[in-house]
Amino acid sequence: MAGGVFQNSYYVMIIIDAILYGVALVLYAQILRLIFESQKRTPMDKFMVCFSTALVLLNTVYWATQAYFGQMMWVIHDDYPGGPDAYASDFAYVWYQTWGTTASVACNLMSDALLVYRCFVIWNSRRIAIIPAVVWVMSLAFGIGLLYGSGRPNGNYFAGIATLFVTAYTASTFAFNVLVTALIIGRIVFVGRRLGYATQEIRVYTGAVAIMVESALPFTVFSAAYLVTYAMGSDVAAAFSFYAMFTCISPLLITLRVLSRRAWTRDSSTLFTTTISYRGPTDYITTTGMHPGDYANADEKAQDLEAAGKSVPISETHPTEVDITDLPV
Fold first, then answer.
1. Structural contact between residues 92 and 146, judged by C-beta atoms closer than 8 angstroms
2. How far, in Å, CA of 98 to CA of 94, rounded?
3. 156: which strand partners?
4. Which residue pairs, CB below 8 angstroms and at least 24 apart, start in 149-152?
5. Res 94: pLDDT
6. Rounded to 5 degrees, what are φ and ψ at 156?
7. Binning pLDDT at 50, 70 and 90, where does residue 252 land?
8. How wide is the angle at C-alpha 84 spanned by C-alphas 83 and 89, nearest 5°?
């Protein structure tokens, strides 16, 4: 951390965090409104509301500690020897900063755990969630190392051993989100193309909004920018650390879709899978048992049927009496 680049980046981060925190509060208010207005609350609805409440509380801790550290650095101790850079370096391990970092890591891990479950729901397969779950465990281990490296005495999030854990943790969470995002987007696009986006009901589950929300795409995009700048050792990374706010916003958006009955469920996933499996033969066989290519157009079909009707003797048009006992069983 050196010069005004870090200070400006940190200031920009606080401003963006404040805006995104307001977005999170609005989403949370809508979630509470939906759950209170709901006539039939499922166990999943109740769980998602409790889950969202925990995320908002953790996000509040993270945002408040970052803003308070900025106040201490620029206002309360503006006369600190060496200036704001020296204060940030000397007090980076202060207890409330460690508290805020812990809240951010916990929020991230909870959000990623939800994505593992959503991946399982959308694919309707436990095996598809195994690899994301393994990467999640790696993120947990690196997150613990991050907290130790940045929270120990004289520790610094942007210097020393903490940087190794921060880079590993950010890389693992980024890899996790790329993997899960690809799996979820791939599944949604596949279902949408197979079903042809035929109706409004199908587009609710396979449209652009579903892709962005279900896959937590904004978090993946902004975490990539943070990972690159942090790994390069650039002070601009502080500005991109606002990506942590999406660990709260993305799950809140998923919760809104769940409560609005627009999110993927295991029932809808099973229905889409069954429909796709059934559509294979019906793409080639009509309801009359004829291949669509048997008739060039409707006029030829009508002419063929008319000619066939004229060529068949009337006596052959009547059904033949058959003894039911002679029919094969």
1. no
2. 7
3. 159
4. 150/92, 150/93, 150/97, 150/98, 150/101, 151/93, 151/97, 151/98, 151/101, 151/102, 152/93
5. 87
6. -150, 125
7. very high
8. 105
Nearest CA to 178 among 146, 236, 139?
139
* pLDDT surpasses 80 at 209: no
pLDDT, tens digit, for every residue of 40-94? 888 888 898 999 999 999 999 999 999 999 999 999 998 899 888 888 888 888 8
Q: What is the largest CA-CA distance in the chain?
A: 112
Mean pLDDT of 7-13: 92
d(CA 124, CA 265): 9
Note whether 245 and 107 are within 8 A (CB): no
Nearest residue to 41 (alpha-carbon basis) of 278, 259, 228: 259
Compute the distance between CA of residue 205 and CA of residue 194 in angstroms, rounded to an integer.
Answer: 13
Q: What is the torsion angle, in degrees rounded to the nearest 10, for the CA atoms of residue 293, residue 298, residue 301 and residue 305?
A: 150
Neighbours of 228 (CB within 10 A): 15
In this prediction the pTM is: 0.75
Residue 234 has what pLDDT?
A: 84
Residue 313 makes CB contacts below 8 A (sequence gap 6+) with none
- The secondary structure of residue 328, as a DSSP letter, is -
Tell me: pLDDT of 4 over 50: yes
* 255 token code pair: 């919760």
DSSP 298-309: HHHHHHHHHHHH
Q: What is the pLDDT at residue 199? A: 54
- With vertex at residue 29, the alpha carbon angle to CA 23 and CA 33, rounded to the nearest 5 degrees, is 145
For residue 285, is pLDDT > 70? no
Report the distance separating Cα 13 and Cα 100, nearest Å.
Answer: 14
55 alpha carbon, distance to own chain's centre: 15
Mean pLDDT of the chain: 78
